[in-house]
Amino acid sequence: MSVVIVTGGTFGIGKAITIELAKRGHKVVAFGLDARQHTSIAENGTALVRAEAEKEKLAVDALEADVSQAADVQRIVDFTREKHGRIDALVNNAAIGPLGTILDTSEELWDRVIEVNLKGYYLTCKAVLPHMIAQGGGSIVNVGSGAGWGKPNMFAYATSKGGIFALSAALAYDHFHQHIRVNTVVPGGGGLGTGMSKGRAQTGLQMFTPGGYTGSVSGRTGTPEDIAYTVCFLLSPEADIISGAIFDVGCFAYQGGPIPPRPKVEVS
Question: Are strands 3-7 and 27-32 parallel, antiparallel or unpaired?
């Protein structure tokens, strides 16, 4: 199985991705910050992942590092190469999601959001690509957001996530002939229960969803594991020809919607 680096891989969606990949036999190096970040309750994630991996006897290394710092990113890449000898895949999940309009967003906060949510993806991709190219190919999955198509009161976050769509497409074009697959996954379906979403909920914010629908076609809300299953597929041989795609997992209303209201009489 492959060797995978997961950023923001120690809590919420990232933790689910880390654990599910490891359960399927991949060797995973996950990293994140243990201290709480803007509008999130996520903390002490490395210890939680280590404990679960040890209990399940999974091949996971959980490290603390800041995705916005080039030296930290290089340390993770060097660790992975030294331990496993290669890097087959990268999952970019690390993000912070403060609320506010442009008038509420200080320059300092704006810079931090862009550093983590956009520059972090740049740093990790730039660090792993030479190794993937030398190996003859690889796969990158970037975790986006419905906010990337625009949402109210999420100015900096939405801007950064919109940039992920362009970053992913540009990478897919530039490295097509080097057999590097680059795809984007958009968490949807509501109720994901991430550190970020729980932190926002504590502010009393009612999250905006086109059409007011927060479920999925299955009739249930999404989970972090649903996102993990999609990431696992995109890193698998079964997705060998897929690149430059956006997978909206659970609630395609984010792409423009709206989801129509449930009919009073069910259609048979």
Answer: parallel
121 is catalytic: no
Count of alpha carbons within 13 Å of 141, Cβ hemisphere only?
33
- Which of the residues 122, 157, 213, 254 is marked catalytic? 157
Class of 3-255 per CATH? alpha beta
Q: What is the pTM of this model?
A: 0.88
Q: How confident is the model at residue 123 (pLDDT cuts 50, 70, 90)?
A: very high
